[in-house]
């Protein structure tokens, strides 16, 4: 069976293009803009409001507007249109109180920047009471009017789970996956807007990053801003707006619940073209292989070693694979101070630029838990000398050039489970303030797995699905039938490669003997076993300069572990029979530590507590020169 490659297949574009055209023909929504909503004698009825009015004199100054007493005929209509089909759609309701001093302070900041609002202001998702409150705070002239924006709610059956399905038919074998159409805001009368003010709901307190209404309002506001060239957006909410749609670097000022943005309209316009959720594949801004040129010097592949020198060999092989794929982008590796100079020298020779980082602890992790320091990945956002990075785990191989991914926005990734993305391959846009955002919420947001993947999925709930061939997991699910297994195996081995990225889950190839995939010998790892994928990794290894092979040698303890597992498999008479294979890997005979008699370890295996690194103390000769041409 042919596996279609979505990125080299024009068909997908054609089909999607045709579909979106036919959808445009039958646009369901009708947006009404009302620009005549002044109420002249709108004196605040409560003393409290009076206080707000006084505070908001700043706004009056900003606008230097004057009250005009005409056009109120349409107010009742504007307001009745505000309700969702007669009833109020709870998904859009926000109970947040508007703090006029914050609003005023934020707008004041704009005028201080000499960018006073000089045109109409669009209002989205404010109720009747709030609109009349706004009217007491903003005066209108012929040039400066309040425009009530209308947005139809999305169908009730559109849930977060339906926007972010676990699986979609990427290869389009049965159907063309498609996302629901979300209603848009459109200006019926082409009124130029200078500012859009949007009140965002938060349906579930402290947990609103997966609210459909909240997402819809932001996408609708972004769409209107991009299409009508609206320079500023003001959100009223107590929780940060979608960080990769309205990046914090575009935040002009925030005061409490008032967030004022000055978006890059070109980029916003591109992001609005993306599918609403992961219900479809997100296609690169500039589609098709080879088309993407990008800003070579501001783009890099990045990986990280979590204080684990056992991954050094993996990272070296990954670098080799990237160069073999024909990419000349920078390679950057984040390491902490526990990685020795010896290992650093190997990484550098492989092409990695080394950045030493301070680790970041997950405050919710238990002491010494395996994932205690996994939040170190947040440091990726501090690589601000790059505009875009492709993060890759250190245990994968790039089989085909994936430079086109640099054309994708943050966060583009493959699906994991449920509504989540897999953080093994992701497109990231470094930004100091995004880093700060990640750090600011470290105590309140809980990661489902205690790792960065769980955390990032809480922050970046609006992510873009790339084909799974860009992070193809080396494993077989229990449910995989024979046909699926064969197909996967064929993909692991295909030459020329069909997969872009092969992610080595389970026991890593360099920690096995090269003769066969040692995942076969442990029942809990058998689902990760594939000799074909194993062999592929070793091909890349063999293509590495020979000086680098020493970083892939086996410690005595690992040899003992492998032999132990083999004996267990033999005792259990595993049907695959790999335990019968005679090991010819020359690394078996090479000792790199002072525990060389590893066979004697086996006598007490399981009784002894071997501490990591015991006796493993490679003495540099650091390698300084590499004579082999690559
Ligand atoms: C509008 O929202 C505010 C804030 O939640 C609330 O106090 C007010 O009662 C609402 N007004 C109407 C007409 O629903
Ligand atoms: C929602 O219901 C409509 C029909 O009313 C249907 O066409 C659409 O596919 C449904 N969407 C989802 C996400 O279930
Ligand atoms: C957040 O909301 C989702 C669905 O709305 C729910 O499944 C999840 O348990 C909630 N999480 C927290 C921490 O409240
Ligand atoms: C995804 O899988 C992890 C681990 O298997 C589990 O803890 C988590 O609840 C799952 N998430 C969803 C949304 O299904
Ligand atoms: C981000 O912060 C670092 C210091 O932590 C600084 O060197 C760098 O210039 C900043 N980047 C930008 C784009 O401001
Ligand atoms: C956390 O880091 C460890 C290495 O220290 C790594 O083995 C593990 O896969 C990481 N876990 C997650 C969930 O990222
Ligand atoms: C494990 O190590 C600890 C401390 O090094 C020691 O007290 C203990 O006896 C060891 N256990 C075994 C089974 O060797």
Question: Gist?
Answer:
With 630 residues, the protein is of the alpha/beta class. The protein is 28% helix and 11% strand. A hairpin with a 5-residue loop joins β12 and β13 (421-428).
Query: What's the Cα radius of gyration?
Result: 29 Å
Bound molecules: 2-acetamido-2-deoxy-beta-D-glucopyranose
Helical proportion, percent range:
25-40%
Query: Biggest sheet, strands in spatial order?
Result: 9-8-7-10-13-12-14
The chain-level mean pLDDT equals 83
Give the termini distance in whole angstroms. Answer: 36 Å
Beta content: 5-15%
Q: Main sheet? A: 7 strands, mixed
Which runs of at least 5 residues are low in confidence (pLDDT < 50)? 1-86, 612-622, 624-630
Helix- and strand-based class?
A: alpha/beta
Number of helices, counting only DSSP H or I runs of 4 residues or more: 17
Overall, the morphology is elongated
Number of strands: 16
Overview of this protein structure:
- This protein has 630 residues and is an alpha/beta fold.
- It contains 17 helices and 16 strands.
- A seven-stranded mixed β-sheet has the order 9-8-7-10-13-12-14, with helices on both faces. It has a six-stranded mixed β-sheet with strand order 2-1-3-4-6-5, sandwiched between helices.
- α14 links the parallel β15 (472-473) and β16 (501-503).
- α8 (212-228) packs across α9.
- The chain is elongated and about 90 Å long.
- The two termini are 36 Å apart.
- One 2-acetamido-2-deoxy-beta-D-glucopyranose is lined by residues 607-609.
- One 2-acetamido-2-deoxy-beta-D-glucopyranose binds at residues 95, 97, 127-130.
């Amino acid at each position: 069976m042919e596996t279609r490659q979505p990125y080299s297949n024009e068909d997908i574009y054609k089909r999607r293009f045709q579909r979106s055209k036919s959808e445009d023909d039958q646009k369901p929504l009708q947006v009404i803009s009302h620009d005549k909503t002044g109420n002249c004698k709108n004196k605040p009825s409560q003393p409290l409001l009076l206080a707000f009015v006084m505070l908001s004199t700043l706004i009056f100054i900003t606008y230097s507007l004057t009250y005009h007493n005409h056009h109120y005929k349409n107010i009742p209509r504007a307001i009745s249109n505000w309700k969702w089909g007669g009833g109020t759609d709870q998904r859009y309701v926000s109970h947040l109180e508007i703090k006029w001093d914050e609003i005023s302070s934020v707008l004041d900041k704009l005028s201080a920047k000499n960018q006073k609002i000089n045109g109409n202001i669009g209002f989205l998702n404010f109720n009747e009471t709030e609109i009349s409150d706004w009217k007491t705070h903003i005066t209108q002239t012929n040039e400066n009017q309040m425009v009530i924006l209308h947005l139809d709610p999305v169908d009730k059956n559109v849930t977060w789970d339906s926007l972010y399905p676990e699986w979609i038919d990427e290869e389009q074998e049965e159907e063309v996956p498609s996302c629901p159409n979300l209603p848009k805001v459109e200006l019926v009368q082409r009124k130029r807007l200078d500012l859009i003010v949007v009140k965002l709901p938060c349906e579930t307190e402290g947990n609103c990053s997966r609210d459909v209404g909240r997402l819809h309002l932001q996408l609708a506001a972004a769409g209107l801003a991009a299409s009508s060239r609206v320079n500023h957006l003001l959100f009223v909410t107590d929780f940060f707006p979608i960080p990769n749609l309205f990046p914090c670097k575009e935040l002009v000022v925030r005061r409490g619940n008032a967030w004022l943005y000055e978006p890059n309209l070109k980029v916003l316009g591109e992001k609005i073209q993306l599918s609403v959720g992961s219900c479809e594949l997100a296609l690169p801004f500039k589609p098709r292989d080879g088309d993407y040129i990008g800003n070579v010097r501001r783009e890099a592949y990045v990986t990280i070693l979590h204080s684990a020198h056992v991954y050094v060999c993996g990272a070296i092989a990954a670098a080799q694979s990237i160069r073999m794929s024909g990419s000349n982008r920078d390679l950057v590796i984040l390491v902490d101070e526990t990685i020795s100079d010896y290992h650093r020298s190997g990484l550098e020779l492989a092409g990695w630029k080394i950045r030493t980082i301070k680790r970041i602890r997950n405050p919710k992790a238990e002491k010494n838990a395996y994932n205690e320091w996994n939040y170190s990945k947040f440091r990726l956002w501090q690589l601000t000398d790059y505009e875009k990075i492709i993060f890759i785990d250190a245990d994968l191989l790039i089989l085909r050039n994936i430079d086109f991914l640099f054309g994708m926005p943050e966060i583009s990734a493959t699906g994991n489970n449920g509504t989540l993305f897999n953080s093994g391959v992701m497109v990231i846009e470094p930004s100091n303030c995004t880093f700060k955002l990640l750090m600011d919420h470290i105590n309140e947001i809980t990661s489902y797995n205690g790792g960065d993947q769980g955390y990032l999925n809480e922050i970046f709930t609006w992510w873009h699905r790339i084909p799974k061939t860009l992070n193809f997991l080396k494993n077989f699910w229990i449910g995989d039938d024979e046909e699926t297994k064969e197909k996967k195996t064929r993909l692991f081995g295909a030459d020329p490669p069909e997969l872009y990225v092969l992610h080595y889950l389970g026991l890593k190839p360099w920690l096995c003997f090269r003769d066969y995939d040692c995942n076969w010998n442990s029942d809990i790892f058998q689902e990760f076993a594939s000799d074909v994928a194993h062999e592929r990794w070793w091909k890349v290894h063999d293509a590495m300069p020979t000086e680098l092979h020493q970083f892939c040698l086996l410690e005595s303890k690992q040899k003992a572990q492998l032999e132990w597992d083999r004996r267990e498999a033999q005792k259990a008479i595993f049907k695959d029979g790999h335990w019968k294979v005679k090991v010819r890997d020359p690394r078996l005979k090479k000792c790199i530590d002072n525990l060389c008699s590893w066979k004697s370890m086996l006598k007490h295996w399981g009784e002894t507590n071997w501490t990591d690194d015991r006796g493993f103390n490679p003495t540099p000769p650091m390698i300084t020169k590499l004579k082999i041409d690559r």
